[in-house]
Design brief:
Chain lengths: 113, 114
């Protein structure tokens, strides 16, 4: 058990809808990272927060946004969903920034119908 | 273009042998490199981290090497066991970007047969 909790485990919705994925980091970890994993793209870095501030951005679509709250949990919001957004979304956390191992949750599987 | 390449074909080995997985990168200057294990339906699990000025790191049956001249990292599992069967991902952190971006390879699936 990594200590990182992601909810929900599965989400099925339709094109055009909006969903929110939630992540609770390991106790004591200040950094939260979001990744997307699809069969054809592998694991892609989306965005990172450290202690409530956005610190790094990957190829995150404008339809996607995230935030980290004062209690350090994070949410990833996906809107105007398209079929191609179907993927596993992982959250990871680490104690600090940069040169740190990351601890991953077991992901949210998003299916767009 | 920038690439991280791992063997896309599965590696099949016999129990007790040493498994060696390869990670090659192009047009990156990694500050350090990490290896993760991923089981089906689960998140990646951190295994080892090696810095760009280190040649080798060991942890129990695991060994990682890092050759910045060859632009390659090798990951070894000695005395392999069926429980080592999983997908292994290498990930590098480039010097640019504040050391916060992990860029993953596609992974190599390892199958250890009894």
């Amino acid at each position: 058990d990594s200590g990182v909790t992601q909810t929900p485990k599965h989400l099925i919705t339709a094109t055009g809808q909006r969903v929110t994925l939630r992540c609770s980091p390991r106790s004591g970890d200040l950094s939260v990272y979001w990744y997307q994993q699809s069969l054809d793209q592998g694991l892609q870095f989306l965005i990172q927060y450290y202690n409530g501030e956005e610190r790094a951005k990957g190829n995150i679509l404008e339809r996607f946004s995230a935030q980290q709250f004062p209690d350090l949990h994070s949410e990833l919001n996906l809107s105007s969903l398209e079929l191609g957004d179907s993927a596993l979304y992982f959250c990871a956390s680490s104690v600090g920034e940069g040169n740190q191992p990351q601890h991953f949750g077991d992901g949210t599987r998003l299916s767009i119908l | 273009s920038q690439k991280i390449e791992q063997n896309s074909e599965a590696l099949n080995i016999q129990e007790g042998k040493t498994a060696t997985l390869t990670c090659n990168y192009t047009n990156y200057s990694p500050a350090y490199l990490q290896w993760y294990r991923q089981d089906p339906g689960r998140g990646p699990v951190f295994l080892l981290l090696i810095r760009e000025n280190e040649k080798e790191k060991r942890k129990e049956r695991l060994k990682v090497t890092f050759d910045t001249t060859l632009k390659q990292s090798l990951f070894h599992i000695t005395a392999s066991q069926p429980a080592d069967s999983a997908t292994y991902l290498c990930a590098l952190v480039p010097f640019s970007g504040g050391y916060n971006k992990l860029i993953f390879g596609a992974g190599t699936r390892l199958a250890v047969h009894p």
